[in-house]
């Protein structure tokens, strides 16, 4: 039996340990890369799921928009829909249909250095007892815009505000941007209110109904 049959030489042990160290580093790097990819994918899915949930809630409320007229004079009235760049307020019919109206307010709220999008709902005739739900958080900017025929315009266009108009907007555009520059961009929401005001109505402030058509 030779001396080599009794074990490994020091050189062989050093080579084996070096190869094992290289393999460990490779495996660790691969594991960290996979973990980073998983975290980014999970964050992207979370953001997209939040955007889809917000779209579903806002679209559902706009689908029940109620074009109630606010009387200014016996011959002038406008739809109770008030929209600015950061706030949108309108009436909706309650679910299930109970005959009650709800007052919804969708707004961008500053939360420290970022913005959140919240929706508040209260009964039309109540001063309290409403609910507030946060739809999106950690946003760097929020912008609302409105598409339709406003005032005496002849053709529809996009506007940064929609106030004291004879009809609701045809479309509502909500643009949001995440505060984290590495986060995936959130999709814009373009929603259409499904209930339109009867703009040909000759409004009667006494009966609150149409008395003929223009």
What's the overall geometry?
Answer: elongated
Name the poorly predicted regions: none
What would you call the structural class?
Answer: alpha+beta
Mean pLDDT: 80
**C-alpha-based Rg, rounded:** 30 Å
Largest sheet: 9 strands, antiparallel
User: Strand-residue fraction?
Assistant: 35-45%
Give the helix proportion (percent range): 25-40%
Gap between N and C termini: 115 Å
Helix and strand sequence: HEEEEEEEEEEEEE
Give the beta-strand count: 13
The count of domains is 1
Number of helices: 1
Q: Would you kindly provide a written description of the structure presented here, covering whatever features stand out?
A:
Helices cover 25% and strands 39% of the residues. The chain has 214 residues and is α+β, with helices and mostly antiparallel strands. It has one domain (57-213). Strands 3, 4, 5, 6, 7, 8, 9, 10 and 11 form a nine-stranded antiparallel β-sheet that branches. Strands 1-2 form a two-stranded antiparallel ribbon. Strands 12-13 form a two-stranded antiparallel ribbon. β7 (131-148) and β8 (157-159) form a beta hairpin. The longest helix is centred in the first third of the chain and has 54 residues, at 10-63. The mean pLDDT is 80.
